[in-house]
Amino acid sequence: METNDKLSKIGKALEIFPEAYDDVIKPAAVEVGKTLALIPSAVNAALLPVRQWILERDFKLAEIEKLLAQKLSSVEAEKIQTPETYVAIPALQAISYSYDSDELRELYANLLAKAMNLDTKDQVHPSFVEMIKQMSPIDASLFELIYERSHTPLIDLYVETKTGNLGHIYNLSWITTYSFSDISVSIDNLQRIGLLEIPHNQEYISNSEYDVVRQTPDYIHAKSKLQELDQGDIGETRKFIRKNALAKSFYKTCVLPTFAKEC
């Protein structure tokens, strides 16, 4: 009853003051209508890439089949088997999300090919799919680069002062193919997911092993920045990246193509 009374009063007011509708209520209603109309358009625009992915999914799966056929071309037909579903299903889903990345597509495809090969299926760990999901294309590229190098030195730089050290710059490496910030993030991420280790308080015996780092533009620039502080001598913490058993298995399964020579 209370609601009906209010509506009746509003109606009577509009009868007495019809200009109130034209001047106040109608413009406000129009603006609200415009705002509400924008929401579906914004949602449609935001979901357009997802809709496009759904439409292209079957095409991408067909392309994945061709890629796997290439990778398994040297395997005897009787050794090609249905992969374990707990590996194949998440891997196929993930590869379709990242098909446009050459680096990630290759990791997933190599993993699937190994999972379908009777001789190699036992080396495929289901956690590898989740690891690749947490990697960027730069991570994938750097992992291969790091793993295939015999010596992997790192240097931290800092300013030595009487009260302590300041201005630390961590994990300067020999790598120059990406920016220092991208390399630093990738090293941290690969360490987080367990694909590399940086042993604490360990370094190569020969100091000359670190010259390859000292000659990079990143090292020279970082040292120059610390020298500009003019608060003490520049110190180094020398480290290295160690290849663990998990990294070796991941490299063998996801990086090496079928029957490629292992490093």
What does the model show?
This protein has 263 residues and is mainly alpha-helical. The protein is 59% helix and 10% strand. The chain has 10 helices and 3 strands, in the order H-H-H-H-H-H-E-E-H-H-H-E-H. A 3-stranded antiparallel beta sheet has the order 2-1-3. Strand 1 (153-161) and strand 2 form a beta hairpin. Helix 2 (18-71) crosses helix 4 and helix 6 (137-147) packs across helix 7 (180-192). The chain is elongated and about 70 Å long. The mean pLDDT is 83.
Ranges where pLDDT stays below 50 over 5 or more residues in a row are none
Largest sheet: 3 strands, antiparallel
Helix content: 55-70%
Q: Total number of helical segments?
A: 10
Mean pLDDT rating: 83
SSE order in H/E notation? HHHHHHEEHHHEH
Strand arrangement across the biggest beta sheet: 2-1-3
The rough form would be described as elongated
Radius of gyration: 30 Å
Number of E-type strands: 3
Distance between the termini: 83 Å
What is the structure about, briefly put?
By secondary structure, the chain is mainly alpha-helical. Helices cover 59% and strands 10% of the residues. Strands 2-1-3 form a three-stranded antiparallel β-sheet.
Keywords:
263 residues, mainly alpha, 3-stranded antiparallel beta sheet, 10% strand
